[in-house]
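Q: Sequence in, structure out?
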Amino acid sequence: MARAAIVCITFALMLSAVPNVAAHDEPPVAAGMILALSGSGGDFDLIRETPAEASQGSRDIVGGVDVDLGVWLSAPLENDISIVSGDIMVVMWALPLVPVIGDGIEFTITVSIDGEVIDSHTSDVVSMIEPLIWTAVPWFAPNIEFNASAGQQFELHAGAMLDGVGSARVQWGNEMDSPATFSIENWLLVREESQVPTEESSQLEAKFNTPWNCSDIDAVTLETKGPVDDHDMAWEDGGESETRALTREECTFALDLAQIEGTHLTLWKVSMSDGGIINQSGNFEVMALEPEGVTQPLHVNLLGGVMGALLAGVLLVAEVSRKVYPERFEGQESLGYFERLQSGFSAEQLAVLGNAVVDGALTNLTHTIMLFAALFASLRSITYS
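A: Exactly. Output:
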């Protein structure tokens, strides 16, 4: 009986030492660019996926001991990223294995890019009075500015301290119990929009930019409303919406505008690999654009080529006659008969003939006559000047 009484008194004293606190707040919701903590055995990653895709890891800690949990690394960036006034949040999870007598648990987090520290400090202490109930412990770093280049990596170094008597388990990579995350809330998804001519019409192209070259974009859908009278009209006032079919090539999503006319409102819905959906609105007006970069087929005009050859032949025969029968042409010096035969067609004359044939084949007879006459007159003036 004495032993039982001592146990009861001890337990009562322990309960009296537990702080009288309200139930824990709801876990904060990550937003913006979210990465999940994943891995075990010292091989830790920050993955651009939901916690459901992460692998579980954990570490048991006891009161009064500062424990180094490890370093988590992201995949190397594929595009540059610039953050201005960004809010970084890390959410860790802990489970009291027994009631913790003391203040509770705190985490020291250091966020770096390739070893260059962005921020490092210790979170607020969160009480651990409810055994076998998972507790979220958030860490905040508001108004952060940084630039990161392609090839660099995010680094998250975490340590835990249980301030009191008892023990707890720190865990990550479990979607239901411990969905630990690292997020940058004010990150913005960049979209560049343009109309590009095609062979038959044009298409609306939206090119997105993410730090991992759109591998973290699962899908994009586009809803449109229109035609509307004003491109500044609110989406809610645009009437019925229509979901459009898109094609994708890496970061570019395209809508064929062949059957679309007028001004339309747009709502882009981008499904990210972290489970979030980003909505972006805009508008476009279908414009009549001339196709660019379209190679026209080569058309050969057979009649033009033949007539060009005949025209050149007639003129060249007349030119040879001038040399063979110089007595018929006043003011021209006579050549010997064999010399006249040997002279034949000059290189300049052959060039005129070739030009006439090619020009006639590729254009038309009228253009051939005009151009050939100009060339022949120029050549003759040079030859007999």
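The mean pLDDT is 81.
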